[in-house]
Amino acid sequence: MNQTANRGPLFLPIIASVGVVVASCFHGVADAQLVVTELMVNPKIADDAVWEWIEVRNEGAAPIDLNGALFAKLGEAENTTADVSAATAANTVIPAGGVAVLYDGDGSAFNDQLFRQAWSLGSGVPLIAVDGFPALANNGTSRNFGLWTDAAAYATALADDGEGTQRVSSFAGAALSLDYANGFPSVSANGPSIAWNGVGSFSDGANWAVSVAGSGVVASLPIFAPGTPVNNPLDIGNPGRVAPGSAAAGLLISEIMYDPASPDATWEWVELYNNTGATINFGATPYVFHDTTTGNTGDLTEANIASGVLAQGKTAVLFNSDLNIDQMKAAWDPGDALGTLFIPVAYFPALNNGGDVIAVWDSLADYQIDAASTTPSRTTGQAITTLAYDDAAPWPTTTSRQSIHLVNLASPASNGASWARSVADDLAGSANAAAVLDSVAIHPGGDLGSPGQFGVSTPANDADFNDDGIVNGADLLIWQRGFGTGTNHATGDADGNGAVNAADLALWKATFGTSGVSANVAAVPEPSSIVLAGAAMFASSALRRRAK
Predict the structure, then answer these.
(1) I need a surface site. Which of 189, 225, 352, 511 has the fewest CB within 10 A?
(2) Positive/negative CA dihedral, 231, 233, 237, 240
(3) DSSP label of 533
(4) With 50 as the cut, is the pLDDT of residue 416 above it?
(5) Cα 121 from Cα 205, distance rounded (Å)
(6) What is the pLDDT of residues 45-75, one digit of tens each?
(7) Helices H / strands E in the chain, number of each
(8) CATH of segment(s) 460-517
(9) Could you tell me the pTM of the whole model?
(10) How many CB atoms lie within 10 A of CB 5?
(11) CATH 1.10.1330.10 in the chain, residue ranges
């Protein structure tokens, strides 16, 4: 459980006199039963729990408000703050007879809107942001979680571990619990959810299956966050600037950024200085750049320096082609003031922080001769330039976020004493990288699941593709995305014939502005309006059932 300081305080239900009957039915679970119907435990972004989620169904006759609820796993230390809070979640209610999707809301950059965009969910599907979302393990024995609606119920599950720490010893008092460690479908592949088929007990893994495309299951869409920083301006270097001195003939490695502060290794780079006496056209004669450590990257099957023209006496900066030239220019040569030549390199080798051997070959054939001689690493006998750098004296040390560069081209590159750390405003003209803002994919799309849906087949002749209770422009967008490819209602198949085509568009036009056949989950009123309306408004909501 993520127990961070910025989670909301523990909110116990406050029952106003005007709404005693209503509020009491919210937190009373005797008249309601919660079951888990679907889990996303291994999304494509496996290291980002915000894309994990739990679909929960309320099979009772009264809504359940999770404001003040706590999540925990067996063996976890006592938690004293609520994991679900009305102070941070736009909705905390699971409607009677309906489903809600609980996701990791512990982060200011993630919200209901982004989750709805990814899964094409209308406002009729209740979402609940959970500040202390229980990280859903993909393997091992910790694949369990419990949900308690208030602190008093949670306290019944605690016991002293013999060392003075209160820990969750059971799921006593839990409104919901699930152990999916044994007998449940394998979730080793990134992307698909696992779902209960609605038959028998939801706690029996034999009643669950991995989600596959079709039958109501949809693929999530990519989500981009515009204006997101993609590098760290603390990085310091001087790429594109030529060091003083007369270099020996040949192609020379003159600067290395092997440990950037920027988010990942894609911001590593290597500078070359051309003193061959001739212009090198990498487009006409592709070269190879690699390291000798076979464990970093597999052997190459094609030359990876395949563009750029490097003039005699000039430098070029080799960078990871996972970035683009515009990003490198924005970071290291804003406005193209220096005219730095940046060359993208496919399969850019990971540069070891503790030292590495890097080399350039002027043909794939020569590289493959060395690659075949692994004893235990690749050799460099056929390379036209090789450099073995280190992070210990006489090489520059403490190089995090700083490149290392040759102080003078006449100095032997193989001697660590010839190199220096880049420091802002040094004689080499080193400077901090400029901040680069770009649209970043915070969710790659392609996860398979059906959050907010549970039941049997979708009625035909229904153009309310996102199940928000009305046929509108949002449904047209779903139809457009699925045109010609759809296999289910959620991709824009209105008439249920297995294809998304012009007939579905015609039905959308004919029913525009009207209600769909029936909303999958009724919209949940705000608590204040619920109190004013009274308990009579909480009859079981209609649920359009879909097949999984």
Answers:
(1) 189
(2) positive
(3) H
(4) yes
(5) 27
(6) 755 667 999 999 999 889 999 999 999 999 9
(7) 8, 30
(8) 1.10.1330.10
(9) 0.56
(10) 5
(11) 460-517
